[in-house]
Amino acid sequence: QPEVVTLGECMAVLYPSEPIPLAQAGQLALDIAGAEANLSIGLSRLGHRVRFISRVGNDPFGQRIRSTLAAEGVQTDAIITDEQAPTGVFFREWLPDGLRRVFYYRRFSAASRLAPEHLHRELFEGARLVHLTGITPALSQSCAEAVAYAVELAQEAGALVVFDPNYRAPLWEPEQARAVLLPLLRRADIILMSHEDAAAVFGVEEVEEVRKVAETFRAQVTVLRRAEQGACAFVGSSCISVPAHPVAQVVDPVGAGDGFNAGFLAGWLRGYSLQEALQLGTRVGAAIVAELGDYAGFRGEETPGKSSIEDKERF
Ligand code: KDG
User: Fold this and answer.
1) pLDDT at 96
2) Cα–Cα distance measured from residue 163 to residue 265, given in angstroms and rounded to the nearest whole number
């Protein structure tokens, strides 16, 4: 039985390995990416059991997603093959000035056809955490319904609902996102949010302002990821902060939030204090920004060996 269940879209991603515009790129690297899949890989590398629920096309990208996740030890038994729709694909552009752009080819993808009928009670049995993000409800009406149903199934299974609003500007406008995400945030037990999302969706920039927004939810903890400023967790009216883990050189920040979430949730599963869980989050996030790709930088064994990450004394 999994400790964590997550659902969402995993896609094939293509990107130039050098910071050159896509219009001029000659060669592209191929990998898989998607917030929930990144989280699954991070948690699995930390030694936790995770089930990833999704749909992929009957195509080489679907096979690649399945085999990559299976090789990572993620449970792939609830990844359905859709015979009618392709796996979503996107291109990532990384310009020399640090600007990053994404170009999605994911409309009508297999994962966008995920629906409540694909979710079953047994898939959630035994889970302690059910992780959902605000990307999925932006994909289609049936995906939005699947997310709402997953919240119900999580609650029935006695799992905590973890929600990351993960606002993606190419998918929807902030107004629409806020209207759809608010009811989900209100049902979450643990909220994990980036400072960019707090600004984009709620128009709040200062930590104190975010805390006030967090107070309006019923979550037992709201975590704010603040990139190079570290992270903090709001519990009631108190706030626990940790600094960022040092990074020699930021190569690619994409995926750092998902890595942070994996570290934080691993800490939660292990019964760490909030401060220790935040520290594990920043450590995994830092490993991810040091390399190209959404999850490559974190191998689960740095500093030195998985066991040390389990050793609270080292924090
Ligand atoms: O968090 C990283 C994700 O943004 C990336 O892997 C792609 O999930 C993705 C999305 O929908 O943009």
Assistant:
1) 77
2) 12
Q: How many CB atoms lie within 10 A of CB 84?
A: 9
Place of tokens 């959902």: 132
Tokens linked to 257? 């939030």
Give residue 305's pLDDT: 38
Counting as low any pLDDT under 50, the low residues of the chain are: 302-315
Q: Of 82, 164, 252, 258, which is the active-site residue? A: 258
Q: What is the pLDDT of residue 236?
A: 86
DSSP state of 241: E
Cα dist. 158→1, 125, 237 in Å?
14, 9, 26
H-only helix segments in the chain: 35-45, 60-71, 121-124, 136-139, 141-157, 174-187, 195-202, 207-215, 256-269, 274-289, 306-310
User: Residues enclosing ligand 1, CB less than 6 A?
Assistant: 33-35, 38, 135, 168, 254-255, 257-258, 294
What domains does the chain contain, in order, with CATH numbers?
4-9+35-53+73-82+119-314 (3.40.1190.20)
| Gap between the Cα atoms of 207 and 212, Å rounded | 9
How far is Cα 50 from Cα 78, in angstroms, rounded to an integer? Answer: 11
What pLDDT shows up at residue 301? 58
Nearest-atom number in ligand 1 for the CA of 36 is: 8
- Phi and psi at 223, nearest 5°, equal -105, 135
Given a contact cutoff of 8 angstroms between Cβ atoms, the answer to whether 216 and 204 are in contact is: no
Q: What residue's CA is closest to ligand 1, atom 5?
A: 34
Angstrom distance (rounded) from CA 143 to CA 140:
5
Q: How far is the CA of 79 from the centre of ligand 1 (A)?
A: 18
CA dist 214 and 219 (Å) reads: 8
pLDDT the model gives residue 19: 85
Tokens representing 261 are 């979430």
